[in-house]
Amino acid sequence: MSAELLTVPEAMARLKVSRWTLYNLIRSGQITSILVSERCRRIPADALDAYVTRLCEEVA
Question: Which residues cross the membrane (predicted)?
Fold first, then answer.
């Protein structure tokens, strides 16, 4: 399995949201993230895709 892992700034740019908003989405469980080390968080690109898909389905 090969998943693209994004840094927080990369994920922020893809969603066009602030750092605060992204971390709130992570804390609430709406977006999955992983800790690579104590201070190194990565967000799977698939997690962003799944989040956007859920948002689109909610409004449909």
Answer: none
